## 1
Amino acid sequence: MLKLITPLMQIVDVPMRALQRLLGPRRLAWAFLAPNLILFGLFAFLPVLVNIAYALTGSDQILLRDRPFVGVRNFTDLSQCASYLDANSCKIDVFWRAVHNTAWFIVLQVGFMVGFSLLTALILNRKIVARGFFRAVFFFPVLLSPVVVALIWKWILQDQGALNAVLEHFGYPTVNWLLNPSWAFGWAVFLSCWAHMGFYTLILLAGLQAIPRDVYEAAQMDAASPWRVFHRITLPLLMPTMVVVLVLALIKGVQTFDEVYAFTGGGPGSATTLVIQYIYQTGFAGAPRLFGLASAASIMVALVLVVLTAVQLWITRRNANG
Amino acid sequence: MANFITRTRGRQRLHWTDWASYAYLGFGVLLMFGPVLWLVLSSFKTETELQHYPPRLLPYVQQTVTLPGYDDPLLVFHVTQGPLAGQDVAQVRRIGLVSQMVRPDDPTTIVKVPIADREPVEHVALATSNYQKLFQRFNFLRFLWNSTFITVVATAITLLVNSMAAFALSKYEFRGRGTVMAMVIGTLMIPQTVVLVPLFLITRDFGLINTLWGVIIPGAATPTGVFLLRQYMLTIPDEILDAARMDNASEWKIYWRIILPLSAPAIAVLAILSIMWRWNDFLWPLIALSQTENFTLQLALNSFRGEFTTDWASLLAMTVLTLVPVVAVFAFLQKYIATGIASTGGK
Amino acid sequence: MADLELRGVTKAYGAAEVIKGVDLQVAEGEFCVFVGPSGCGKSTLLRMISGLEPITGGEVRIGGEVVNRRGPAERGLAMVFQSYALYPHMTVRQNLSFGLENLRATKADIETRVTEAAQMLQIDKLLDRRPKDLSGGQRQRVAIGRAVVREPRIFLFDEPLSNLDAELRVEMRGEISRLHRRIGNTMIYVTHDQVEAMTMADKIAVLRDGRLEQFGRPLDLYNAPANAFVAGFIGSPRMNFFTGRIAGGAVRLTTGETVALPGDTFDMAEGAEVTLGIRPNGLHPVDSGSGLSVTVTGVERLGGESYIYGSTQDGTAVTVHSPGQTAIEPGGAVTLAIDPAEAHLFSAKTSKSLRKGAAS
């Protein structure tokens, strides 16, 4: 490996040396930055502009010059609802169904996941034998690909699957989990928690272990009950980490697509269609490719994310400054 | 053993909360490991065994016997009723509700046995037929190659490009550095999921749609990587760089002979993260690749999802093979991964 | 080997000027020490000589050539850093040969030079170790070795001993001096420790606030400091300073005492505000007669010598060095006789020395 890299680097050294002589060592920094900045520019900043351009134009044409300018019509179309609480009353009901699904998904997933992550972290923070092993057990699904996670649970939940077999064995009625809209949605939330819980557990555990031991010892000297220690010491000191975890979970929740799409394909019906899937289907999978509508929808998602990310950066900075 | 588990550090006896904790953790092990274990066990079941309901925990294979006069191995059954009761016989063929059987010691005489009167002779064994089929019937190696190529090349590019930028941002003072840092933070707010349409269009303009490079390039520069590496490089003393300058090293040489080796721990963390992101990536490849021969493993797995029926036998085997590298990497680098992910906030 | 010349060298970061025009000539083979309090610009000046820091104005000449526009590698210098700056991921041998490799020296040449330098510095047994497995003193030797193998025209040392403990520092001090005698190269050595400067230097450059205060041989600086700052900085314990004014050919201190000084040594304009400087060994406790009356605040008895600390009536701190053992106790009063031959006189306004013939 090193034998391969060394000559390559030596070759690059020749033009870089010339550039160094030309620019001086200080301005050479731009040469080091250039590849990264070009990639950022082309695939992060330029897309933002292009996104706006497509959101303001209509039709299913792919080239911008073929697309008629429609102003904010894509946005008004998307937000035209008699009642925002009833997707059926909206002009583009699929989008609003996806928005409602996503909202419910985030509330349930973030709530359950952060709750169980906290519980797990608190337990792992006790004097536990083989803590490393248990931590690894809870963490490893984080590494599995969303598609694999979806398939693992689909295999268990299918009509003739292991779960139904167990239910039948104990005399309970079986359910066709993935064909029942409510159950499918519930299981989508569950498998998302299952897959990502370990990550948040890890962060919370690190937060718990960062609380100095002597604070607990002082509390012990003050004869505080375990509940009071948790309530008055652990929770407040863990609060900064909790907030970070919550915001991170929200950011990721809004972007959920992979595992749910691979799990149910958005179905049955549109019971598990989330916003990102709506964008994907509108822009790429549907018969007329409605880039304008998809762009407009992703700008709306982006605004939510920008707010959440700004909050996250602000909190991390505040935490870092102590 | 019980003694070992009930022994706690410091205290003598287990409090009820300890029991509750271990119960919770035990349940956790079942919930986290169980499904994966079930998947792996299932993948080693024959197609017939997969149809078996209720499913059995362990994979069973029906015994076969090769008899003279028959080209293929014959399935062995145990006869429960009738004249052959209690004997193991081989089935030549099955017609409706009747099997034509032969006794192993008399392979020429066909005996008819109602199928209700026989049960298969089985033993626990791992059937590799699903895996063999994967290589024979599907373009599995193609998908594996695509995934590997994307993962390796993209990670190499990410490491190079990000470490160069991190070096410039941590070790040089130049006008515009603050602006560049702000740009990096800005890209943190633009995940791929919110620029799918323009990303597709731009990549298409470069002629990269439906190529592996179209998957690799757009995500090659990561803000996370720049942050992670810069943070680490800030801890390398500037005097070492000055010493190298006095030692006649060019800036590029300082980068790859001094900075890169000294940042090895951070680079390893980024490498692991990048490998994980790339190997598991789904949404962008789904958009950028539409021809089956360019599919990654994740896309191939997803495409197996039939409209009405699913070829579970192949799908299970492929899922296991997709999962194996990740688990292997995890087993060896658990500590790195955990600290790496915790230190960057995931992505 | 080469000489070094600085001509009106300046350095500014934006509006802030940190080196305000330094002129200096270091002859070939000289051991020159830059000394001064922290923040005086001595390290910046060294880095400007090395080429690591760009020069804002003036000229740096090495061996007669102006090197302003040359990079650090092209000046033919070698530097030993305060933190040693050894490459942590390389063995000692690789640390020593890295620079030679960059200069495209042949393998055999590198081998001989590394071996030679390692033997000279007694690190030949450590060549395959990494810096983290070395002690502080060993790291220091490797850092020096890395400079030695380069056979530079000038050696630069940036406070190389400040990370060592006191005992090792004395040892390495001797070692660097021996190294200088042995290879005879021009060396520039930066330190904030005036003891290091006095013991090692052929020439000392005292810097303050980006200006060269005085440049000369150690004992010249000690005996005839150009100004009150150099007088106070060189010599330990510090020189005592008393304020006063010239009255009738003598110095009348603000505390009232009068000190007669030989008029042919100092420029004593009637009525001028002056600062009288006397080193601790120029003051002697006397039982009777005229002198400075001082309240004793502390006594340090070291056996062979004693230090008496006190303060005058107006609160000026006074340190007295007295050979042998003393019976003086804290709390009492003592009269100090001033040895006129040990006196230094500075203008209170410019703080320049009033010694006749002193370089301004």
## 2
Amino acid sequence: MSTETFTEHYGALRDALPGQDLPWLSRLRADAFARFAEAGLPTPRQESWKYTSLRPIEKAGFGADGAPRACISIDRAPSLLPSASDHHRLVFVDGHHRADLSTVGPLPEGAELTSLREMLAKDPAWLEAHLGAQAQDDSQALLALNTAMMMNGFVLRLAKGTVLHDPIEVVHLGGAGEGPLAYHPRNLVVLEPGSQATLIEHHTHMGEQPYYANSGTEVTLAEGAVLHHYKLQADALNAFHTATVHAEVAAGALYDAFGMTTGARLSRNEIAVRLAGEEANCHLNGAYLVRGEQHVDNTTRIDHLVPNTACSEIFKGVIDDKARAVFQGKITVHRDAQHTNGHQLSKVLLLSDQAEIDAKPELEIYADDVVCSHGATAGDLDHNALFYLRSRGIPEKAARAMLIEAFLAESVHNIAAQGLCPALMSSIGHWLADRRGDL
Amino acid sequence: MLEIKNLHATVDGKEILKGIDLSVNAGEIHAIMGPNGSGKSTLSYVLTGREGYEATEGEVLFKGRNLLDMEPEQRAGAGVFLAFQYPVEIPGVPNTTFLKEALNSVRRARGEDELDAMQFVKLVREKTKMLHMSDDMLKRAVNVGFSGGEKKRNEALQMAILEPSLAILDETDSGLDIDAMKTVADSVNLLRRPDNALLVITHYQRLLDYIVPDHVHVLAHGRIQKSGGKELALELEKSGYAAFTETAAA
């Protein structure tokens, strides 16, 4: 597939990209761009892109802009947390950090939460050691594009034993530009031994313009560190969203992730987790509600590298109209990884005859003493439950809505950050309310 | 209240009910007894509008309205209630949410104002107290992890809250030990009023020791073979259904 659009962007912006005066960074970008230019945007001819075509992105004619325009005026960015609760907020508009809308701190000793640009100015040596340390999969063209073009993003760094009690909310507002824009947020989370944080990403929109957000996130969890990582992707229905995450989990550490997708014309979450120390644990859960002609792709890879690690992965989806979902989940248990506990499940409700799910669960096991399972189901609502509700006077549409909500509610209520549940449930509620007419 | 005239019904194209006539008045308890496969449960599903149970002939009037033309929720709104033989488990839906949604739907159908959260809690407390139930069942998901007895008591609670004019009890005794059955029967008896009626569908006579019927009907081969008073149930207990199944088959 052609790379022209992005080659143009890179050519036009290269000199203005942050950190170009740093030789290591300009080399990192140049190498990444060379990889991207050689590979091009992924096409369905590639195994892991068999069910997702990026052709619409190519056709949309996205532009790029180098400098933030401060003139975009908003009072405050939306929040997923109850307003009374204390939390830190970083706000990005069209990929640009808006300090005026962000509120950070006070942070405990040993905690740093800032933007990538600020970190570049402050501690480039630390960035040099961490940027690209996890994201090393050269076959990922979108990640290479992100590395080449990254403009900004958030950086969270916790020193040994630092526990951040208040959650961090990162708000991305898209569509505020004057034309269709593509941007490439790059985020970095480094938790040193025993540190803990809760991170909430909220992707939403404020303007009418189509946009393409192609993010890259690297997560390093040292011994005993805990990261709760939540994401609500409620981008505009004319937007495109691709996110690549690499996480490495050391001994006794926990990467606990839950992502919900309701937005974007096309989205792909590609998450790779390496369980690299004994008793490392990861929860990789997700939910999505899509309709119209939306396309959502969750592609995950979990590598059990050492003995005694565990993962659990549950993705639940509701697919209506002509929408299409892809779930590709690969769990690899490496040869030394005895006593691995790995469970994966994809469950989908198909609300229309034209809705489609392509589910590809994959277990690759090279150790002999492991407990692993995987499964995938797709179906309509439970007719017995529907009749039970209706026999109690609940109208059919309301009964269907109740069952759909219940299907996802289990996943939502299982998250550790209970303060986030009402917002997630209400976004499910809104989706259903919009659908009531023709459920 | 309920007039069933020459009701025929099919399931999967097979005729199960072959001409049922039954008349139930307010204040009455009718028992429908019969062997397995006689059409007892089919009758309860045809009356409540379950998908796949199709009335092919005859009519059913409920308070003068044509019941068979109504959606299941409209029948509930009009005052028909089915206590399920196997109450359905609904993970993810809290029992209270379900009860409130059901009550307010039925109240809307009756032209009454919906209850707000406070009024609803007060009402539920009243009803659980009356039925000697603990609040614990309210917080859990509908019927999920409930014992057989708890499920049937949850049906009784729904009945207490929705106050139907006609409650159909479908094999309410099945799967219950004698104590659990007695508890559920006590609950049902507490809910009796001169203006409501009960249709008790059962295979065994034992439930009728606790919910005493005014009329007993024997259903076999899709038809009511015999009707009588409560003594008919005792007779069946002694002689079994053989007489009816043989008669009909001959």
